[in-house]
Design goal:
The complex is a heterodimer. Helix content of chain A is 49%, strand content 11%. By secondary structure, chain A is α/β, with parallel strands linked by helices. Chain A has a six-stranded parallel sheet with strand order 1-10-7-4-2-3, with helices on both faces. In chain A, strands 8-5-6-9 form a four-stranded mixed sheet, with helices on both faces. Chain A is elongated. Chain B has a six-stranded parallel sheet, sandwiched between helices. A four-stranded mixed sheet of chain B has the order 8-5-6-9, sandwiched between helices. The longest helix of chain B is centred in the N-terminal third of the chain and has 12 residues. Classes of the chains: A alpha/beta, B alpha/beta.
Chain lengths: 732, 173
C-alpha cells in the first residue's frame, strides 16, 4: 500500500474527525434501532438462507428471470462488466436517449458504468446526494452507504458553486436545498432511469429498493424506461427472506429502524410504453458461489457495517481501506470482482481484530476470509526463508531467538520494542525495532525449577481429591519476552489446584505464518503442536496468548481438515484447549477449597455447604480491563477474565470506553504499518487514561507489549499486567 | 397500537393528526394546503366530496404542486411506516414530487411490525399484474454531508399522517 497515501489520510484532520465521530455515534444509534430485537437470531437466519441460496444460485437466477419476465420485465444476465455496460448502452440507445438519470447502485460503480457511457455519448447524472458530490469531484465512494463521508461542507459548497454557477455557502441545509433544485430537472427530463436493488425475490420477480432521499422513487417513476442493475447474489427465494434483509439492513447500516422509503417493484408499471430492464450482474459471482471456501463472501447484504466498526477504516477511510467496495467485506470482494492485482495491497491492511465479524448482518467470517485470501497473493521477499526454513525447524527458530537476545543488546534502552517474534528475524524488519528478548526464556527457566512439576510438592488437594493436569502452551512471545508472565501462570494454576507441565517441544502456533499467507507452514506447525500436546495425557491445554488459543482451538482444525488422522487429533486438542482466564474462572466459585489461597478467614480450608464464600482479600486496587480482540471475538471469552480479576485477584474494575477495541498490535501489523498501529494505540491510551486506573489488566502478551510500549513512551506510570500475574500476586 | 405508531412516526419527523370524522380531517387538509394546487390523482370519492374546493393539479404539473394527497393501505406501529400501493406512476409522482405529502390512514389497518405486513405484501406481489408498493417512513432525508441529518432532499419535506379513528371504510373505495 502506498505509504504516502496512508499518511495523507492520517494527516487529514477533517476525515479523521468525521470518521471518529461516526465511530462513536454509530453504536449508540444502532443499539437503539435494534432495541427489543434479537440481532443474533435475525442474522443467523440471514446467514442460513443466504448460504442455502448460494448453493443453488444458478437455479435462483433462473427462477427469478422467469418470474420477472412473466411480470413483464426484461432480464439480461451479464457475465462481465463489459457485457453489462454494453447491454445498458444498447437499452439506452434503443430508446433514442442520451441521458441516464441514476439513483445509487454500487454495482454501477463496480462496472464503472458512467465512464463507459460518457465515452459512448450518454451523459449520466447521479442523484443520490453523496454520489452526486463524488461525481462532481471525480472520485469514488469511500463508504458503501455514505459515499461522500470524506468530504466536508466547504468542499461540497465549492463543488456545488462550480456546478451551478452561483455562490453556494457552506451551510448544510442550504446545500441540500441546492441539490434538490439542481437535480429536479434531471429527474423530469431523464429519458431512462437507473437504480440498483437491495434484494430480489425469485418467486415473484420483485425487486426491493431501500432508500432515504426519495431519488430512488423518482428515477423509477418519471422516466418511461427503468434499468435496474442487480448483482445476482441479491436474489433470495421469496418475500419472507427479503423482509429479513429489509429489517436488518438500515439498522446495521446507519442505525435507522427503517429507511424513509422501501419500494417493492414487480414488472413495469404504468402500462404501454413503460419498460423495466433488470440487468443481472454476474462478474465472477456465479463462480464464487460455487467455491465452498469463499462463497460466504456473497452473503453480504452491503450494509457497510464492517467499515463502521473497523479501527483501521476509522483512521484511513475507504479510499485506502478498500477498492470500489470498501471496509472488511470490500477487501474480500475485491479480488473476485476486480482481480487479485487490485486486492494484493489492501488485503494486508486488516489488523485482524474481528470487529467486523461481530457486526456482520450475514454473520460472515470476514476476517477469516481475508486471512485465507492472503494465501493467494504474492509473498514479500525474505518471507520464504523466515517461514519456509526457520519456522519449520523449532530448534533453529529458537536458536535464532536466543541469538537475537545477544544481538539486541547494543540497541536496548532506546525504546526499541519487539513487535512480533518471527518477523523480527526477518531482515526487512530487523533494523526497525529489536525485541527486548529475555536473557532466559521460560522454557529454560522451568527446567531449573523441577519441583514445580512434581505434583506432590504442591501439598494436598481438598475437595475434588485429585489435581487436574494442565499442559501449558505459552506461545513464543510470552516464552521469550515475558518469561515471568509464564511463571505467574504456573504459580496461579498450581495454587488453584492444577498440576502444570510445560512440554518442551511445543513451537510457534503458526499464526504469523497463516497471517502472512504461508498456509503450508501453518499446517506444519499445526501438525507438530498437535502431536506434542496430545502426546502427554492431560485434562487441559492452557494458553496465555489468545491468538495461540484461537489457533489451537479453531485454526488447526480448519488447516488440517483434509487429513483425517490429524483432523481428529485437532478436534481432540480443540476440545481441551482453554485460555488461562477460562480455567482460572472455574475455581473462582470454590476458592476456599484452594490450598494456599489467602482468604479473609485464615485457616478456612474447606467449604461448608451453605456457607457464604468469604472471597479473597481485596487489594483495594482498581484496574481497567482491555479485551484482547482474539480473546473476545476469536474465542468468545469476555466475562471470565473479569470474574478472575474480581474474585481471584481481588481488584475492582473500572471499565474503559471501547474496552474491546483493538490496541493496534496485530502481530506483524505493527511492523508493517507502524503509522496506523500507533494511531490505533493512541485511542486506546486515551480511553485508559480516562479511567484513572493505575493498572491495565490484559490476557494477551501482545496487547501488553503494545500498550506498555505506548504508556512508556508517553511517560505514563500506568502498568500493564497479564491477569495471571495479578492472580499470582494475590494468591502466590 | 395507535399510540405506538404515533410515537414512532413522530420520532422520524412525521406529523401525526388523529381524527374521528372525515370532515375534521378535511378541515386539516384545507388549512395545511392553503391555496396551493394539489397532486391527488387517486382520491377516494368520499374525500373529494368533503373537499370540493381543492385545486387539483394536472399530472404534468405535479412538480410545481404544493402538496400531494394519498391513502395508505396499512401502517406499521414499530416504525411509524405507511404502506402505499402506487402501481400507477401518476399516483407515485403525486407522493414523490410535491414538498408536502398528506396521507390518510385507517387506524384499524395498523399492524405491530414489518413481519406482520408480510401477508398483505405477498397478496399484492403474488398477483400476476405489475405492481409498485411503497413503504414510507417520515419525510425524505439525507445525512450525506458530514452526516448531518437534513430533512427534505428529493422527496417530500413534510409528511402529514391523517389517522382516521372513526369509520374509515371509505379509504378502501
Amino acid at each position: 500500500m502506498d505509504k504516502g497515501l496512508i499518511q495523507q489520510k492520517l494527516d487529514n484532520t477533517f476525515l479523521r474527525r468525521a470518521l471518529k465521530n461516526f465511530a462513536a455515534a454509530y453504536p449508540v444509534a444502532r443499539a437503539k434501532a435494534f432495541e427489543g430485537m434479537d440481532f443474533e437470531e435475525l442474522r443467523g437466519r440471514i446467514s442460513d438462507f443466504k448460504e442455502g441460496g448460494l448453493e443453488q444460485l444458478p437455479a435462483l437466477v433462473e427462477q427469478f428471470t422467469a418470474s420477472a419476465e412473466k411480470a413483464g420485465a426484461r432480464v439480461h444476465l451479464c457475465t462481465t462488466p463489459d457485457d453489462a455496460n454494453r447491454t445498458i448502452l444498447e437499452i439506452i440507445r434503443s430508446k433514442n436517449a442520451d441521458f441516464l438519470v441514476k439513483s445509487k447502485a454500487m454495482t454501477s460503480e463496480e462496472i464503472e458504468l458512467n465512464h463507459y457511457l460518457e465515452k459512448n455519448g450518454v451523459s449520466c447524472l447521479e442523484t443520490d446526494l453523496g454520489e452526486w458530490i463524488i461525481q462532481l469531484a471525480g472520485e469514488r465512494p469511500s463508504h458503501m452507504v455514505m459515499p461522500a463521508i470524506h468530504k466536508n461542507k466547504e468542499e461540497v459548497a465549492e463543488l456545488f458553486s462550480r456546478e451551478t454557477g452561483r455562490e453556494c455557502p457552506p451551510d448544510i441545509p442550504s446545500l441540500v436545498q441546492t441539490a434538490r433544485e439542481a437535480l429536479r430537472s434531471g429527474f423530469l427530463t431523464g429519458q431512462v432511469g437507473m437504480s440498483g436493488a437491495n434484494v430480489a425475490m425469485a418467486d415473484s420477480g420483485t425487486l426491493a429498493i431501500i432508500t432515504n432521499e426519495g431519488n430512488g422513487r423518482l428515477v423509477t417513476t418519471l422516466p418511461r424506461t427503468h434499468i435496474a442493475l442487480v448483482g445476482v447474489e441479491k436474489i433470495v427465494p421469496s418475500l419472507t427472506e427479503a423482509l429479513d434483509v429489509i429489517e436488518i439492513l438500515p439498522k446495521n447500516a446507519t442505525g435507522q429502524k427503517i429507511t424513509s422509503y422501501v419500494s417493492f417493484i414487480k414488472g413495469p408499471t404504468g402500462g404501454d410504453g413503460r419498460e423495466l430492464h433488470i440487468v443481472l450482474l454476474d462478474n465472477g459471482r456465479l463462480r464464487l458461489a460455487a467455491d465452498p471456501a469463499f462463497r460466504e463472501a456473497l452473503k453480504c447484504v452491503k450494509c457497510g457495517a464492517c467499515a463502521n466498526v473497523c479501527p483501521i477504516y476509522e483512521l484511513v477511510g475507504g479510499h485506502v481501506f478498500g477498492h470500489i467496495y470498501v471496509g472488511g467485506i470490500g477487501l474480500v470482494l475485491t479480488p473476485f470482482f476486480h482481480g487479485f492485482d487490485k486486492a494484493e495491497e489492501i488485503l494486508k491492511l486488516c489488523i485482524g481484530c474481528r470487529k467486523c465479524n461481530e457486526i456482520c448482518a450475514a454473520r460472515i467470517d470476514i476476517e477469516g476470509l481475508i486471512v485465507d485470501l492472503r494465501d493467494k497473493i504474492r509473498k514479500p521477499f525474505g518471507q520464504k526463508f523466515l517461514f519456509g526454513t526457520l519456522m519449520k525447524n523449532r530448534k533453529l527458530f529458537h536458536a535464532a531467538l536466543r541469538t537475537a537476545y545477544l544481538a539486541q543488546k547494543p540497541f536496548q534502552g532506546a525504546g526499541g520494542r519487539i513487535r512480533h517474534l518471527p518477523l523480527v528475524l526477518n531482515r526487512e524488519t530487523a533494523n526497525r525495532s529489536l525485541p527486548p528478548i529475555a536473557e532466559k526464556p521460560f522454557r529454560d527457566l522451568i527446567l531449573e525449577k523441577p519441583e514445580s512439576r512434581v505434583p506432590d510438592s504442591l501439598g494436598p488437594v481438598h475437595g475434588s481429591g485429585s489435581r487436574e493436569k494442565v499442559l501449558f502452551y505459552s506461545g513464543c512471545l510470552a516464552d521469550f519476552v515475558y518469561p515471568e508472565m509464564c511463571q505467574d501462570t504456573v504459580t496461579s494454576l498450581e495454587k488453584l489446584g492444577y498440576t502444570v507441565t510445560f512440554p518442551q517441544n511445543q513451537t510457534c502456533c503458526g499464526i504469523p505464518a497463516r497471517y502472512s499467507g504461508e498456509m503450508e507452514v501453518a499446517r506444519d506447525m499445526a501438525r507438530i503442536n498437535t502431536d506434542v500436546l496430545l502426546k502427554e495425557d492431560a485434562d487441559y491445554v492452557v494458553t496465555i496468548c489468545p491468538t495461540c488459543t484461537m489457533s489451537l482451538k479453531h485454526d488447526f482444525g480448519k488447516l488440517l481438515a483434509d487429513e483425517p488422522v490429524y483432523a481428529e487429533k485437532a478436534r481432540r486438542l480443540a476440545e481441551k484447549t482453554f485460555n488461562f482466564s477460562e480455567l482460572a474462572a472455574r475455581k473462582a466459585g470454590s476458592r476456599a477449597q484452594t490450598p494456599g489461597l489467602k482468604t479473609q478467614t485464615p485457616g478456612l480450608k474447606t467449604q461448608t455447604p451453605g456457607l457464604k464464600d468469604p472471597g479473597p482479600e481485596k487489594t483495594g486496587e482498581t484496574v481497567t480491563y482491555h479485551d484482547a480482540c482474539h480473546l473476545k471475538r476469536g474465542c468468545g471469552v469476555h466475562e471470565e477474565p473479569r470474574k478472575v480479576l474480581r474474585e481471584l485477584a481481588g481488584v475492582e474494575i473500572a471499565e474503559m470506553e471501547d474496552c474491546d477495541k483493538c490496541c493496534g498490535f496485530g502481530g506483524s501489523y505493527s511492523i508493517k504499518y507502524p503509522e496506523i498501529s500507533q494511531e490505533v494505540l493512541k485511542n486506546k491510551l486515551e480511553t485508559i487514561a480516562a479511567t484513572g486506573a493505575k493498572t491495565v489488566a490484559v490476557d494477551c502478551p501482545g496487547c501488553k507489549l503494545q500498550i506498555e510500549g505506548g504508556l512508556e513512551a508517553a511517560g505514563s506510570p500506568v502498568k500493564v499486567e497479564h491477569s495471571a500475574t495479578l492472580v499470582a500476586k494475590m494468591i502466590g | 397500537m395507535v399510540e405506538l405508531f404515533q410515537i414512532a412516526a413522530e420520532a422520524v419527523g412525521a406529523v401525526v393528526k388523529r381524527f374521528t370524522t372525515l370532515s375534521d380531517a378535511a378541515g386539516y387538509v384545507t388549512s395545511a394546503v392553503g391555496a396551493a394546487t394539489v397532486a391527488a390523482p387517486d382520491l377516494p370519492p368520499a374525500v373529494r366530496r368533503v373537499l370540493p374546493e381543492l385545486t387539483l393539479a394536472a399530472p404534468a404539473d405535479f412538480a410545481v404542486a404544493g402538496a400531494g394527497i394519498s391513502v395508505a393501505r396499512a401502517g406499521i406501529a414499530a416504525t411509524g411506516s405507511l404502506l402505499l400501493e402506487l402501481s400507477d406512476p401518476t399516483d407515485r409522482s403525486a407522493t414523490a414530487l410535491p414538498p408536502v405529502h398528506l396521507v390518510f390512514l385507517d387506524a384499524t389497518t395498523i399492524v405491530p411490525t414489518l413481519a406482520d405486513l408480510a401477508g398483505l405484501l405477498a397478496e399484492n406481489l403474488n398477483r400476476p399484474a405489475p405492481v409498485y408498493l411503497s413503504l414510507t417512513t417520515g419525510p425524505s432525508r439525507t445525512a450525506d454531508i458530514e452526516r448531518v441529518l437534513t430533512i427534505g432532499v428529493h422527496g417530500p419535506k413534510e409528511l402529514h399522517i391523517l389517522m382516521m379513528e372513526g369509520d374509515a371504510t371509505w379509504t378502501r373505495d
